[in-house]
């Protein structure tokens, strides 16, 4: 089930020598140490679930018969391509995605096509811790999370009974991971090649208890009004099975499964309606957000254009002032030159008039007469 410690378990097996396929989902705020899930498998699972009218958060039983349809077989072929492309060169490979809990028949078909034999490792966590994690991450109501937990856990257990399998708890991984590794080797018959002080130190550093944000007590199963008898019975069955699989009988889980299928006649349509409503609301919110983002982008672009215009206007204003100042300087120089020219013209006129007076005088005439003689 989602949020059950499968990421920690997958990385533990990887550090001990199991290969990881292809490109992995990146870590994020919800899982800072990584999901260790192949993105191609997650995308394929989501597409398959959607094609079958379901989704990762659908707490109703997956219609396994749909896998036999033409569409279902098409997804099997796509998984075969992924397995051949990403796992062909590797020996022991660990593949993790919680969606696979409900899709074991799908995986079994694909693995048979590539001559791979599965060994199933089921990781179970206290259902109230799972619900708290989903509520914190996705805002999922506790009632939906507990029903989703039931569906994943029951589907995984029921569909893996004929396989080599081991049931462990998240608490066992955190408190005694070395015993978990030994049990993987003993029960599943898997030899994990990487062991030693350096590997052990890396695993110990990775399995940091501080990263566990939700904690629930055994008593909370009985104290919480949101926990149904189904959840209590199924979780306690898995707790016992994680210590000694011979101490439990699947008959108890079959009884719960039967009761849930009987009740699903009444609650499944309501759950689907509720999921559809939430999906429509989410889609409407996404559309509204996309429109808001588009509007914000237009506003940002307009503001950027306005800033560019203002900058251009300031630049042009500065250039215009410079030209105006230069023109004023030229005009002042021209005025000075004009005034100087006028003064020179007046001085020339005055000189000419003075010369005329001199030339008209008897003295000047006498001078000219003497010079001619």
Structure commentary:
With 373 residues, the chain is mostly helical. It has 2 domains: 243 residues, Rossmann fold (3-Layer(aba) Sandwich); 45 residues. Helices cover 67% and strands 3% of the residues. It is built from 13 helices and 2 strands; from the N terminus they run H-H-H-H-E-H-H-E-H-H-H-H-H-H-H. A two-stranded parallel ribbon has the order 1-2. Helix 5 crosses helix 6. The longest helix has 111 residues. It is rod-shaped and about 160 Å long. The termini are far apart. The mean pLDDT is 91.
- Rounded average pLDDT: 91
Detail the poorly predicted runs: none
CATH fold topology of the largest domain: Rossmann fold
CATH class of the largest domain: Alpha Beta
The secondary-structure class comes to: mainly alpha
Question: What descriptors fit this protein?
Answer:
Rossmann fold, 373 residues, mainly alpha, 2 domains, two-stranded parallel ribbon, 2 strands, single chain, rod-shaped
How do you describe this structure in short?
This protein is mostly helical and 373 residues long.
What is the fold's blueprint, element by element?
Blueprint: H1 6-15, H2 39-51, H3 70-87, H4 104-113, E1 119-124, H5 127-138, H6 142-159, E2 164-169, H7 170-175, H8 177-188, H9 197-206, H10 220-223, H11 229-243, H12 250-360, H13 362-372
Parallel strand pairs: 1-2
Helix pairs in contact: 1-9, 2-3, 3-4, 5-6, 11-12
């Amino acid at each position: 089930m989602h949020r059950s410690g499968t990421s920690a378990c997958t990385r533990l097996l990887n550090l001990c020598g199991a290969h990881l396929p292809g490109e992995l989902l990146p870590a994020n705020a919800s899982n800072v140490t990584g999901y260790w899930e192949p993105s191609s498998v997650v995308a394929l699972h989501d597409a398959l679930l959607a094609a079958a009218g379901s989704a990762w958060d659908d707490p109703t039983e997956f219609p396994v018969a749909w896998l036999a349809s033409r569409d279902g077989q098409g997804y099997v072929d796509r998984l075969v391509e992924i397995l051949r492309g990403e796992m062909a060169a590797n020996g022991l490979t660990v593949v993790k995605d919680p969606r696979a809990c409900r899709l074991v028949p799908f995986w079994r078909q694909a693995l048979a096509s590539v001559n791979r034999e599965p060994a199933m490792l089921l990781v179970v966590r206290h259902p109230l811790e799972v619900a708290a994690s989903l509520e914190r991450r996705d805002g999922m109501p506790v009632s939906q999370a507990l029903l989703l937990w039931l569906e994943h856990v029951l589907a995984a257990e029921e569909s893996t009974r004929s396989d080599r399998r081991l049931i462990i708890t998240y608490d066992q991984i955190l408190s005694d991971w070395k015993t978990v590794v030994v049990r993987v080797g003993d029960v599943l018959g898997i030899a994990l090649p990487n062991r030693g002080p350096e590997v052990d130190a890396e695993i110990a550093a990775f399995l940091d208890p501080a990263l566990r944000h939700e904690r629930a007590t055994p008593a909370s199963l009985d104290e919480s009004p949101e926990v149904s008898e189904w959840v209590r019975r199924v979780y306690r069955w898995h707790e016992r099975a994680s210590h000694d699989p011979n101490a439990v009988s699947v008959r108890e889980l079959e009884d719960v499964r039967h009761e849930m299928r009987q009740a699903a006649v009444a609650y499944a349509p309501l759950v689907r309606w509720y999921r559809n409503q939430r999906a429509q609301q989410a889609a409407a919110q996404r559309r509204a957000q996309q429109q808001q983002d588009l509007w914000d982008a237009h506003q940002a672009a307009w503001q950027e254009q306005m800033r560019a215009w203002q900058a251009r206007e300031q630049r042009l204003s500065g250039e215009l002032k410079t030209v105006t100042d230069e023109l004023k300087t030229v005009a002042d120089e021209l005025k000075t030159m004009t005034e100087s020219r006028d003064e020179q013209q007046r001085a020339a006129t005055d000189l000419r008039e003075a010369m005329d007076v001199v030339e008209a005088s008897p003295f000047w005439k006498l001078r000219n007469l003497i010079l001619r003689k």
